[in-house]
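User: Can you write out an input/output pair for a complex, sequences first and structure second?

Assistant: Here is one pair. Inputs:
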Amino acid sequence: MSNSNSTEIIRAGLKKRYAREKRFRLFGIASLMISFAFLLVLLFTIVSKGWPAFQQTYVKLDIVLDETVLKVNNKSDEDALFSANYQKVVRESLNKMFPGVKGRKQKRDLKNIVSNSAAYTIRDDVLENPDLLGTKQTYWFLAKDDIDVFMKGKIDRDLPEDERRLKDYQFEWIDKLIEEDRLEKRFNTVLFTNGDSREPEQAGMKGAIMGSLFTMLVTLMLSFPIAVAAAAYLEEFAPQNNKWVDIIEININNLAAVPSIVFGLLGLAVYINYFGVPRSTPLIGGLVLTLMTLPTIIIASRAAIKSVPPSIKEAAIGLGASRIQTLFQHTLPLAMPGILTGTIIGMAQALGETAPLLMIGMIAFVAEVPTGVLDPSTVMPVQIYLWSDSPERAFTERTSAAIMVLLGFLVAMNLIAIMLRKKFERRW
Amino acid sequence: MTDVINTMPGMPRAVPLESETPKPAVDAITGEKHRSEFDVEINGTVGKPLVDNAKMSSRNCDVFYGDKQAIFGVDLDIGNNEIIAMIGPSGCGKSTFLRVLNRMNDTISICRVTGEHTLDGEDIYGKKTDPVLLRARVGMVFQKPNPFPKSIYDNVAYGARLHGLASNRSELDDLVEASLIKAGLFKEVKDDLQKPGTGLSGGQQQRLCIARAIAVDPEVILMDEPTSALDPIATATIEELMDELRSNYTIAIVTHSMQQAARVSQRTAYFHMGKLVEVNDTDKVFTNPEHQLTENYITGRFG
């Protein structure tokens, strides 16, 4: 009697239990969909804004390399060739194409059809081959950012003249250039081969990419061995139930939660002011980011080392392996996938970090591409911040493009980590 | 009665000493069955714990885990080329005692071992004794098969490589083959030596672990419930193997199966609450035990 009664009670509750389970699953799916939607929106905005930055408008000009205009008497005089006024021949070429331009402002606008890098392009060409002097050459120059922005359809012709960047006479020039097939959009190699610049059309992120790369290398080389050694010591060698070990553990866990700008201040106070590490360099950036990454990697590595089955360690010790041999031959290889996961999480954090780097001078405007860890440089997230702060319209798309490159960098790093992890996991 | 409550099985501490248990044993036996065990006095070890041709011997062995004492004054010899079985209820200290013999307890930081322990007359806890060398001479097979996540070959070769026992590849090959043959595994795996050791069946894995232990050429092999995770057929194979190994090695085995102890061993030691109660020839322990506790255990009154 009581038996069938219980069955009835259970049966009555079943419907409610299943409904609860279904609700929970729906919530899960819904939250997944929402996060996915936000991710799509984010990617769409960045890609749609940044995509045009991968193209750049070029202007074709016929340049007469007149020795008298350039004031070069001797073709073998390199100093003269170097310091000659190439800007002038560009201006002459434009004047010839658009005669009758009057007024200082209009003349300046005419000059500003091409980027001022045009002069350097010619200079480099002439320095390499002085025989070009006196001849007429055809060049494709970078267009000035306003022209570029217009060519990408970002300036509305139909607005009243005083509300737009380009005036009516400039449209006439552009129309003529288009008519003569002198304007062309090409893949923007400048973005990947140049350092930063105040001129948007000349600004590239090679400096930031190299800066990030060097900074990450310094961070990885320092934080990985230190963190793994610390984790291995704390897990395998440190005395248990020791007051000091407990204090160290608590502090490591707390460090993981310290705001990153504090590490920047620490780097400024200790590394730069006390030890005299040069500021604005990947070295100091790497040192500061190491401080930030260490707790993340240590915590992940400890968890990974802890999860290695004790039976494997006992087997090795039982066969006469020393503790160090057991650690290096069994524990660490088996913990490596987990350690690598922690490392990648730490490195990804470090790659995207801006705040502590502001404190140690990596926000400086650096046009040169760094060639080592002691060259002044900036990093990608700081570059993004700098560009997003610039008033020129053309920097907007470059900002988004830089974000895309940064994301690409992150994906590449993750891929390498996954491949490494797969490789280590294949040890059955 | 508080004494009784304090001494639950599985808690290897607070064993009532003789002076603290004024109740006569006779009364206890007439009492409730599951309580009777606690009231029997353990007044030293009965039987023959010592032998003439001892390979290993322990005198006055105490083991502490922090404040808790796990083993109380055990005296025991392990004779040359014999198999000695250690039996007793869970938590009685038999595995702990086994781990004393090759200093595996060193890996537990809170564990402290006292007493005199010798291998061939040498003190194994002496300052001069290297635990690495000791563990090469006193091998161990664990309760759960624990092959390394490497190939069968690398598993067996591990110890030999560690200690530099083979000078070249062909010597190592021979050593691996010989060890696998001795462990009775070679026929089954001879074509798969490069396959992972973890892919074998449970019984094969345990024999692989035995082969791995043999490859270091130890003098004593300690086995901690080596067949508790295996089915009866795999168990029978390993028991046969132990019998063959006896001619070359001294074996100490901890087991929960009294049948296994009766089948494989020459001497049997019965542990209870961290004390060594009785040691005798295996036949005698299982047919005519001297101590009341031993009798209670082997007749299945508790355990």
